[in-house]
Amino acid sequence: MKKERSQAKLGAERTRRSIVKLLKHHGAMDALHLANELHVTAMAVRQHLYRLQEEGLVSFSEEPRSMGRPAKMWALTSEANRLFPDGYADLTISLIESMKEAFGEDGLDRMLDIRNRNQIMEYQSKVSKDLTLKERLNAFAASRTAEGYMAEIIENEDGSYSFVEKHCPICEAARACSGLCKKEVEMFKQVLGADLEITRSEHILEGDIRCVYVITPPIGRD
After folding, report:
1. Residues of the chain with pLDDT > 90: what percent?
2. pTM, 2 dp
C-alpha cells in the first residue's frame, strides 16, 4: 500500500511537471487542451492545475467562448521561473553588485561590452554567413536553446521570422543589470546579418511571457 501511494505521488508530480512544461512552451492553455496533450482526463488536469495554483505557480484568466461559459486559460506566474534554469541568478546578481561597487557603472559597462563581444564571436563561429537566413536562424536558435533560452523559429506569412525565446536563464540578473538586455538586438544583427531589420516585439522583463524578435530580410532576399 505504501509503495502504491509513493508511485501515485510520483505520477502526480510528473504530470504537474508536464503541465508546467507545456504552459512554458505554448503559453496559456485551457484544461481540455492540456488533457489532450497529456492523454489524461480534463478533470485530472484541473485537479493538478488547482494544486499548482495553490503553490503560486499558475493563474488563470477567463476567455469568452461563442457557446457556453468562458474558458479558464491557465498560464504560468513569474514564480514558476524558479523551476527552470536560472543561470545561477543569485551568484550572478551578487557579482554584478560587487562589480558596480568596485568599478562603478562605467567599469561595469566596459565589462558588459567585453561579454557582448565574446558572445558574438562564439555565436558567429556556430552561425555561418554561408547559410540561408532560415538555416542561420535555426543554428542560432539551437545555440540559444543549449544555453536555456528554449528558442524556436516561426515563419510569418509576410516573409519575416519570429525568433521566440520562451525562457530567459539570466532573467533575474537582467533585472539587476539592464545592460545585459540592452544590446540584444544589436547582437542579433551582428550574428544573423547587419542588413536584417530586427525588432523586439515581446520582452519578459516588460511582463510578457516570452521574448520575441521579429526578423525581416531585405526585399528580394530569403
Report:
1. 46
2. 0.64
